[in-house]
Structure formats: C-alpha cells, structure tokens
Please model this.
Amino acid sequence: MNTIECIKSRASVRSFKPDKIPDSVLDEILDSAVHAPSAGNVQDWEFVVVSKQDTKNRLAGAAWGQEFVSQAPAVIVVCSNLRTIHNAYGERGNSLYSIQNTATATQNMLLAAWEKGLGSCWVGSFNDEKVREILVLPSHVRPMAIVPIGYPATEPKKTRRKKLGEVVHKEFY
Ligand SMILES: Cc1cc2nc3c(=O)[nH]c(=O)nc-3n(C[C@H](O)[C@H](O)[C@H](O)COP(=O)(O)O)c2cc1C
Model:
C-alpha cells in the first residue's frame, strides 16, 4: 500500500477482534509516531501503552463511556510533555505546538496501524483529569488523544469528504 492509498482508504475503526497485537507491530506503530515532524524538533510527545483490561475500562469511562476503547487489545494515550515545549516556545508552545505536534504523531500512528491491517480511532472526547488520574500523569504531562488499536471486527465505512472546491481558496480567501 502506498502512502496516498493508505491515507485515502483509512477509516476509523470502533469494533475490534480480541486478538493480541504482536509487540513488534505495536513498536512499529509507535516508531512511526516519533518520526512525525514537531516544532523545533522538540518531540514533546510521550505515549502510555495500555493493555490491562481494568485500565482500558477506566479509560473508556473517562472517555464518557465510549465502550469501544475498552474493547481494543491495545490503547495508546498520546500525551504532550508541556514542560519541554514550554521551555522551547513559551505560551505558543503550550497552547499551539503541543497540540500540533501530538496531532501529527497521532495521525502517523493511525496510518501505520492501517498499513499493518489494524484499525484505530482518534478519541479526543474525554475528561482530562480522569485520564491523568488513571495513568498517574504528572501535572506537566497533558493527555491529548486516546487511540484504541486492534484488528477490525467489521469493515469500517468510509465517511464523506467535502469537495476540494468547498475548502480550497486560490490566492485569496
Ligand atoms: C481531534 C479528533 C477527535 C476525535 N474524537 C473522537 C471521539 O471522541 N470519539 C470517536 O468515536 N471518534 C472521534 N474522532 C474520530 C472522528 O469522528 C473521525 O475521524 C471522523 O468522523 C472522520 O471519519 P474517519 O476517521 O473514518 O475518516 C475524533 C477525530 C479527531 C481528529
């Protein structure tokens, strides 16, 4: 699968087979994440890999009951180390680059997973404080995305995209 095929065929997966993901595959997905670009190459991302059922259940609860989070064999919580990004860029680092950097890393993970025949979903709707507590995150580490990953139980449906003409402006807005 080439890059464009991977980007265009990927879809969010919200139902998973219980099959374990080989460690080597999970490592490849994480390694793809850390190859993402980041402002000043600060790489403020950090990842908490969760496979214990009790923790996954609690994360699903923190994500307002999105049960599919607990059904994935692996859940990766993408975090930003705000201390490192703030040291480099101050307020702009905290409020913008931390989000952008971890977003690029998260997207790399979704694509790498898809290329490996795995499904995943970017979960952004969660209670930060609850996730913090469950994962024992220090106060300078902010959870940015919860990414459940597993072999798809059903083929996901492609969602509609706006036409280029609706979103592309030439020269001026
Ligand atoms: C920042 C962000 C937050 C999201 N949060 C959730 C979420 O909490 N729960 C969920 O089921 N999907 C979530 N999604 C997935 C989107 O719903 C999904 O990407 C979108 O509908 C397009 O579908 P596709 O991923 O299949 O192309 C999120 C996606 C992004 C980028």
User: Anything to note?
Assistant: The chain has a mean pLDDT of 98. The pocket of flavin mononucleotide is lined by residues 11-12, 14, 66, 121-125, 159 (CB under 6 Å).
